[in-house]
Amino acid sequence: MIRLIVVCSAYIAAQMMADITSLRIVVIAGLSMDAGTLIYPFTFTLRDMVHKVAGVAAARALIISAAVINIVMALLFSLVAQLPADPTVGPQTEFAVVLAPVWRIVFASIVAEVVAELVDTEIYRLWVTRITRRYQWARVLTSNAVSVPLDSLLFAWLAFGGELPAEVVWAIVLSNILIKGVTTLISLPGIYLVKESAPPKIPTVQSE
Q1: Tens digit of each residue's pLDDT (9 = 90 or more) over 55-84
Q2: pLDDT of 156-172, one tens digit each?
Q3: From CA 57, how far away is CA 50, in angstroms rounded?
Q4: Domains of the chain (ranges, CATH numbers)
Q5: pTM of the model
Q6: DSSP at 153
Q7: 3-state DSSP call for residue 28?
Q8: Strands 31-34 and 25-28, sheet pairing
Q9: Is residue 49 within 8 Å of residue 7, measured between CB atoms?
């Protein structure tokens, strides 16, 4: 139970940090990307860990909860940025400059997160129920191999499509996939840190 609480907290924290830092586009090793890419990929393995411990319903609930929390956070930041500053302290314009949400990016982040994470959940579930409960690294790698490119495509085109040249958007997609892929390999061993929940029992019908 303690590990589940820690993993859920880490998941939501990573989602929030990713949404905040995605407002800044940075260049790493010559590749353009939103800074949220540095932390967001860990959420896929963290979600897999929750799925492993608590099951598919808990994983889906966590995804939706994180999305709602991020929406509330963006609304709160927007409200605080518009409230008048205390004149005895100063204009305090830095808050609005740094944290006031860019709604198109907020929308793109949340849509990409929810869609990609739900797809990740379904692939993970199918692997466990239809293929095998062995090879835990494979279930994480397989689910992330689909959800990572999907998330990158959705976010980049929803956030920047039509605003930036197509080649720049594709460059952001590529850099996101590369960074998230590397992060998947780094975070993959985390799946072994939590204990698997018991598979549901299939009721048997006794013959009379």
Answers
A1: 999 999 999 999 999 999 999 999 998 999
A2: 999 889 988 998 889 88
A3: 10
A4: 2-193 (1.10.1760)
A5: 0.83
A6: H
A7: strand
A8: antiparallel
A9: yes
